[in-house]
């Protein structure tokens, strides 16, 4: 998980290009290994279910992490977008009897579309105001899901039964095979996001994040880029939404409310913005911590809210930044010692 | 016609609650640029606190009001000293802290009291009937209470040394500091004031009927919309916009398909944010404090 630390230990004679390549691939290799090992270590059903939940939430959080980390723009409608994906997949699967593959594609498209629309509002407002705007949009989406009972089932929610449906040769009803399917979705998502991060486009995004006006003046269309980042985050959230509904098999609007979006913000911040695996690590902590401590849902809400406050106040760059922090601290210390010795000599 | 007047009156009372919340949000934003969304949870906290003290004192509404004000002010003081103090220079961090507070306070309210909704009887029952329009005594008391508080705030901001210091800090933090204004103390006081206003709003919400632990976010979003429409930093703007939103909302309840009120109101917030992100009143940055 600690890719930043691993990279620091690489021999320095490697060319910078090779280092870059290893840096890009290493986190994904770590994830594939970690995900692939689960079927062989004989986990019980409860742990397997939690792992599946963590992977699905980690997928969705990765989308938000990409948006926030690369473009510096965050949103409080991410869970709502995931909800749109979940409802879309559930609806077309149960009512139109389409296969899982098509349901997944439609959920991804719906997520990308809604998120792109929300992001396109950033033409009018940016920064703080955009975040508030997404808060209001999230409230609208939840209110519509609650009221539009004919389609969404209202507060009673919607039930989705996978039956004997299978995809890529994996049976959805089988917990272990469904886990593998979620693992594949997460891996593909991470590969896609990492490619975008290392592509020229990713560099442009980070440039605009650091200095919006300079990026504009150099010919980058900052607004259109922000909309496209929103679409990417939405596609990921849509895919996660589809996996979510087939995992939990019952959904209701409260699962995709503003509170759920705040939890996604927590996951991204907890692991660390700008780290590919940050959101996944955040999702793992979010899912396993309350369960390991046997917290009631309300108690875990209190604990997670407190963790969010503590993280933003004490460790705003997230858990994965700890390695870099300790290294910086050591360097500063040795530099101070060196200068002290130098002064003695003089 | 009578039903229209009735809706307008009910809207006025709802608007008073929004104006109180909006004033708190406006003050905090004006001073620290932090958008304090946990104010909504402070409203529910105040309402439940008032409910408890009603039970303890056998129905003394004055003590309930005072306990809500004191209790929520203390909560505001504690959160400012332990959290928002450290986000003074980073408004986005402050905003995220307030999101975390939403989760914590909601959970704490459920743990202490209940996850369902609670109701209380009005402090003063009955109503006067003017040609078909029923004006509840409680509504009139609440309106008067809100008017007195908002009015005295206007005077404090305009006529006192403290108000002057507050406006100066809001205009230009550094210049105010150079002129000897204790901006940290002012910021702390502002958080306490915003909390006290939320406490009053909580008491009003309770006396109007029911309260549940999860209504905070919907109140705060309305309050924020009001603050924004009125121009962040403007007391009179908050009052006008608050009453406006309350009336519009009640007209929507009266004339549009029922059950969808939340959708209309939040959509209205989205539209307002898009059309005039700096507020509907004149001036690019909205009116000043």
Taking all residues together, what is the mean pLDDT of chain B?
A: 86
CATH architecture of chain A: Orthogonal Bundle
Strand content of chain B: under 5%
Q: Can you tell me the CATH architecture of chain B?
A: Orthogonal Bundle
Mind telling me the C-alpha Rg of chain A?
21 Å
Instruction: Note the overall shape of chain A.
Output: globular
Q: What spatial order of strands do you see in the largest sheet of chain B?
A: 1-4
Fill in the CATH topology of chain B: ABC transporter involved in vitamin B12 uptake, BtuC
The strand count of chain A comes to 4
Gross geometry of chain B: globular
CATH class of chain A: Mainly Alpha
Q: If interface size is counted as residues with C-beta under 8 Å from the partner's C-beta, which chains form the largest one? A: A-B, 37 and 40 residues
What is the ordering of alpha helices and beta strands of chain A?
Answer: HHHHHHHEEEHHHHEHHHH
Spell out the key features of this protein.
heterodimer, A: 346 residues, mainly alpha, ABC transporter involved in vitamin B12 uptake, BtuC, two-stranded antiparallel sheet, two-stranded antiparallel ribbon, disordered N terminus, B: 289 residues, 4 strands, globular, disordered C terminus
């Amino acid at each position: 998980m600690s890719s930043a630390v691993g990279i620091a230990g690489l021999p320095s004679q490697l060319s910078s290009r090779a280092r870059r390549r290893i840096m890009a691939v290493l986190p994904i290799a770590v994830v594939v290994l970690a995900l692939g090992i689960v079927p062989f270590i004989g986990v019980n059903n409860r742990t397997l279910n939690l792992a599946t939940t963590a992977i699905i939430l980690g997928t969705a959080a990765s989308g938000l992490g990409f948006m926030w980390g690369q473009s510096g723009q965050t949103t409080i409608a991410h869970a709502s977008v995931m909800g749109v994906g979940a409802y879309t997949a559930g609806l077309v699967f149960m009512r139109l009897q389409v296969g899982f593959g098509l349901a997944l594609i439609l959920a991804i498209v719906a997520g990308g579309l809604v998120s792109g629309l929300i992001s396109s509002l950033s033409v009018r407002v940016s920064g703080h105001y955009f975040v508030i705007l997404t808060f209001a949009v999230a409230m609208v989406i939840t209110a519509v899901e609650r009221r539009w009972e004919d389609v969404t089932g209202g507060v009673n929610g919607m039930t989705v039964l996978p039956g004997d449906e299978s995809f890529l040769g994996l049976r959805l009803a089988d917990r272990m095979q469904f886990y593998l399917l979620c693992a594949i979705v997460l891996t593909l998502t991470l590969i896609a996001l990492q490619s975008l991060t290392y592509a020229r486009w990713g560099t442009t995004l980070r440039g605009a994040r650091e200095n919006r006006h300079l990026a504009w003046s150099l010919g980058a269309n900052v607004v259109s880029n922000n909309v496209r980042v929103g679409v990417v985050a939405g596609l990921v959230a849509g895919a996660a939404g589809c996996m979510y509904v087939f995992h939990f098999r019952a959904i209701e609007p409260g699962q995709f409310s503003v509170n759920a979006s705040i939890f996604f913000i927590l996951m991204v911040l907890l692991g660390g913005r700008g780290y590919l695996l940050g959101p996944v690590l955040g999702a793992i902590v979010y899912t396993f911590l309350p369960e390991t401590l046997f917290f009631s849902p309300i108690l875990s809400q209190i604990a997670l809210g407190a963790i969010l406050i503590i993280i933003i106040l004490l460790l705003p760059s997230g858990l994965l930044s700890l390695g870099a922090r300790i290294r910086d601290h050591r360097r500063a210390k040795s530099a101070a010692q060196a200068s002290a010795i130098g002064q003695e000599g003089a | 016609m009578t039903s229209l007047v009735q809706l307008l009156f009910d809207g006025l009372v709802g608007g008073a609650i929004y104006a109180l919340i909006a004033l708190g949000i406006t003050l905090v934003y004006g001073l620290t640029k932090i958008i304090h969304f946990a104010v909504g949870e402070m409203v529910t906290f105040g309402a439940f606190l008032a409910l408890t003290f009603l039970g303890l004192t056998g129905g003394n509404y004055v003590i309930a009001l005072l306990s809500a004000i004191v209790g929520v002010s203390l909560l505001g003081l504690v959160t400012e000293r332990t959290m928002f103090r450290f986000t003074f220079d980073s408004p986005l961090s402050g905003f995220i802290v307030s999101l975390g507070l939403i989760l914590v306070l909601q959970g704490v309210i459920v743990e202490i009291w209940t996850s369902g909704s609670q109701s209380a009887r009005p402090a003063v029952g009955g109503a006067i009937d003017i040609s078909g329009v029923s004006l509840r005594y409680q509504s009139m008391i609440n309106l008067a209470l809100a008017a007195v508080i908002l009015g005295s705030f206007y005077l404090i901001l305009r006529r006192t040394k403290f108000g002057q210091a507050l406006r100066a800090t809001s205009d230009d933090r550094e210049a105010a500091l150079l002129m000897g204004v204790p901006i940290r103390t002012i910021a702390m006081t502002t958080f306490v004031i915003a909390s006290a206003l939320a406490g009053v709003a909580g008491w009003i919400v309770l006396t109007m009927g029911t309260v549940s632990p999860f209504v905070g976010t919907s109140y705060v979003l309305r309050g924020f919309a009001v603050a924004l429409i009125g121009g962040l930093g403007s007391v009179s703007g908050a009052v006008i916009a608050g009453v406006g939103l309350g009336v519009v909302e009640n007209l929507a309840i009266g004339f549009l398909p029922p059950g969808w009120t939340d959708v209309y109101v939040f959509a209205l917030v989205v539209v307002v944010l898009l059309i005039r992100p700096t507020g509907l009143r004149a001036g690019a940055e909205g009116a000043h404090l």
